[in-house]
Amino acid sequence: MSQPVQRAASQSLISKYINKETLKYVFTTHFWGPVSNFGIPIAAIYDLKKDPEMISGPMTLALVMYSGVFMRYSLAVTPRNFLLFGCHVVNETAQLVQGYRYLNHHYLGGKKADATDANVAKTA
């Protein structure tokens, strides 16, 4: 491609995606609220690798309810905030997995199975 054609293509791309409406959106809480909120699901996904003994059942339940409420809220406001909705879908999923791990470990025999596996590994 020649230099003028490249410049025209990049100018077209920039004018299409970087305009007043986009900049106005980026400088609102409709954008920065969900972006800053993504720390919660990222931490929850990271915690999926940790020992189930460290999971707090009440906190996990609170975060499941929190994300459920805000998923509904993100679609009830005008304009709809799909970025916030996506953030809470990811968090809801991660927290439900954490809740399953908690229940399995504490109430469904996961703790006993872990102890049995540890004893078998010691004798082997």
TrEMBL record:
Whether rRNA-binding counts among this entry's keywords is no
- What protein am I looking at? Mitochondrial pyruvate carrier
Q: Which UniProt keywords apply?
A: Membrane, Mitochondrion, Mitochondrion inner membrane, Transmembrane, Transmembrane helix, Transport
Q: What is the lineage of its organism?
A: Eukaryota, Fungi, Dikarya, Ascomycota, Saccharomycotina
Q: Which PANTHER family match?
A: UPF0041 BRAIN PROTEIN 44-RELATED
Localization per record? Mitochondrion inner membrane
Family listed: Belongs to the mitochondrial pyruvate carrier (MPC) (TC 2.A.105) family.
Carries keyword Transport?
yes
Q: How does it sit in the membrane?
A: Multi-pass membrane protein
What's the stated role of this polypeptide?
A: Mediates the uptake of pyruvate into mitochondria.
Annotated membrane-spanning segments are 55-75
GO BP terms: namely: pyruvate import into mitochondria
Q: Could you tell me which Pfam families the record lists for this protein? A: MPC
The main place the protein resides is mitochondrion
Gene Ontology CC entries for this record: mitochondrial inner membrane
